[in-house]
Amino acid sequence: MKQKLFYLLPILVLTGCGQVSYKNTSLSPEERADLLVKELTLEEKVQLMMDGSRPVERLGIKPYNWWNEALHGVARAGLATVFPQPIGMAASFSPETVYDVFTAVSDEVRAKNTYYSSKGSRERYQGLTMWTPTVNIYRDPRWGRGIETYGEDPYLTSRMGVMVVKGLQGPADGDYDKLHACAKHFAVHSGPEWNRHSFNAENIKPRDLYETYLPPFEALVKEGEVKEVMCAYNRFEGEPCCGSNRLLMQILRDEWGFDGIVVSDCGAIADFYNDRGHHTHPDAESASAAAVVSGTDLECGSSYKALVESVKKGLISEEKVNTSVKRLLKARFELGEMDDLEKVSWAKIPFSVVASAAHDSLALKIARKSMTLLMNKDNFLPLRRGGLTVAVMGPNANDSVMQWGNYNGMPPHTVTILDGIRNLLGADDKLIYEQGCPWVERTLIHSAFSQCKSADGPGFTARYWNNLTREGSPVTTTQVTTPFRFCTSGATVFAPGVNLTDFSATYNSVFTPVQSGEIVLEVYCYGNGRLRVNGEEVKGFSNKHGARKTTHAMKVQAGQSYDIELDFEYLRSDAQLNFDLGFKREVDIQKSVEQVKEADIVIFASGISPSLEGEEMGVNLPGFKKGDRTDIELPAVQRELIDALYRAGKKIILVNCSGSPIGLEPETKKCEAILQAWYPGQQGGTAVAEVLFGDYNPAGRLPVTFYRNVSQLPDFEDYNMTGRTYRYMQDTPLFSFGYGLSYTTFSYGKVVLDRSEVTAGQTLKLTVPVTNTGKRGGEEVVQVYLKKQGDAEGPVKTLRAFKRVFIPAGQTTNIEFDLKDKELEWWDEQTNTVRVCSGTYDIMVGGSSEDESLRRTLVTIK
């Protein structure tokens, strides 16, 4: 026996008392977590329950930051491939491509994490727990964060969301997990943004809860085996979601068997008790205790510091705290984050994958698949090259930042729509660029950077220090003669001799305008700083969650001098600083029309921007409120310019960029074609141009209904589904869910079922012949919808299967679907559950959700 024990000693890692240690990698992550939690003090446990988890040095626990983003590429961590916004990826109706995208994203995450870890850096946005995907239902087009979702349909959202999780988390058979994904925001959370910290989603019908709001989360938990779930800001039926026993314990853990981590949305626990929040709890101690008891293990915020006092006051037992800490430690062991990187195979992914050529090609592939052609009068598209004069106009024609969407990384290059069109024009074609108007306002800004001169010459004198406090002499002094475009992505320093991180800078110049008027100073940066004019600070900024724009407007007099000083400091990697200044000029619609008078065709890049629609933003412009929309039509200045072009006899192609459905009804009467391009990522301009010139045959389909105007929408704050989305809408929308055109045509034959009756547990095989009746090959998205006859309260139809398939010109392909219990289930009023229910069902198959495009058959479920 002694001899046998001696043989095992090199394998087992023992503590000084002869007990097995958590450092023993032969134990399971759960066993290791069990051992480690016993060695922690209460104070140490609490430190591990916040997103910025502090180290426990006596036990060898490193610091770890749980907050990381990868919505459509590695976000807020500098250099990364930027894929289309999720709502655009949803338009691809291609879960397989989405899986490929997020496999690429997870490769980049791992490579960057390995790099940061090798430098001893464990900051926010450098870790392995990615707070994505967003699988809330896009129930109302006015919601600003709908751009982060996969649309309005529970089935489509589920299929896309599961692929995101599988791509991020990697294969399940490795020694360590590749990454951990997070399903958010749980649950019944789809705006409004302006009052989300106090909003109560109440009186939700059980049917709407289980048929619409919960299915994507259930799919991610059960099929995707997602490792984290983020609870939402709002209340559900009176309880804050992060303290909802109904959501987190009864549904998530008991009904679905989720045993992973629940993390709060950032600051959501403070909303329990602070002035702008729910006022359901008196203080941090009671709020934190309630959240942990309800199942929220990890807080993004700092309220959980009060848990030590909560335990002392008897508001929560230490055993409850232990349950959450074990989950957190188990996750860190699963990722290999607590072990040496040499033991983790995922750490061998080279940094060269980051923003690689292969990933750039994948960004183009998914951008192409997302392009959704909504209108094409008399086959106006594709355009024919050769002696063509094309005018490119509109606020989104030459805007790379718009294409990046939100929660984005920094691509090494971006092809704008203007670039894409220019690149594809023929040698004897001519291009005219005239922006014409911005998104909403009626002023344009024209650079006056050339009117700046410092003591050392034209432009700005730049001084740099390799510290954050400007101590000592500058390490470098240079002259910046063009508008600033600095970024340390790809190990590119701001100037020779300057650190990539932990540096500061001061830029000085004297601006002497040649004309009087209003000047705008614009800073777009990732970092901290201050802008001073004539020694007075006019704007301060501290952007810690990605780059943001800051502006300052002021009146200037011609010939008068203005001292301008810009300070900048950056601690983390991948700093960014853009700066320019320019005069405001009123939009002159008639002048813009005159500028393009020679154009045969006007390509107008319309729409809005992630700087207008998004998460709880400070934007309050006509049509927008805190990131939400109050109107869904194009902003008035764009409509007026399009109208003027139309009255001038111009042939207009509208390329609309937005993350939300736009009410384009007036434009359907004035334009020859409409292409919905979403926020298409770094290769978006190439994809747009390829579609316009016919190099790529579009096959994107709408993942959201495009309404005519707000009169077709119910009250924004009403979460019941009556009248919402294609599933419950009685009116006729402008463009239906699932709709999209091609440069070829398809016809559907008879839908054939392998049986007329089916019972629970059986598979119903459906076959439909689809013929490409056009002259060029193309992809069709074949969609299957279900409706229970006699169910007046249920959806008029609901998506239950789809396939994106290529069919050569003139050929017929038999498309097959296997419909199982999940595809055939329905709401059962008797049990208030979703299950396979007896009855007669309409099965509808076609190229969109429009009734006239669907072929129908019946099936009886016994």
From TrEMBL:
Residues 455-597 form the PA14 domain. PROSITE patterns: PA14 (PS51820), PROKAR_LIPOPROTEIN (PS51257). Transmembrane segments: none annotated. One of its GO terms (biological process) is xylan catabolic process. The keyword Hydrolase applies. InterPro entries: BXL, Fn3-like, GH, Glyco_hydro_3_C, Glyco_hydro_3_C_sf, Glyco_hydro_3_N, Glyco_hydro_3_N_sf, Ig-like_fold. GO terms for molecular function: alpha-L-arabinofuranosidase activity; beta-glucosidase activity; xylan 1,4-beta-xylosidase activity. Keywords: Hydrolase, Signal. NCBIfam families: xylosidase_Xyl3A. Belongs to the glycosyl hydrolase 3 family. This is Glycoside hydrolase family 3 protein. It comes from Bacteroides intestinalis. The lineage of its organism: Bacteria, Pseudomonadati, Bacteroidota, Bacteroidia, Bacteroidales.
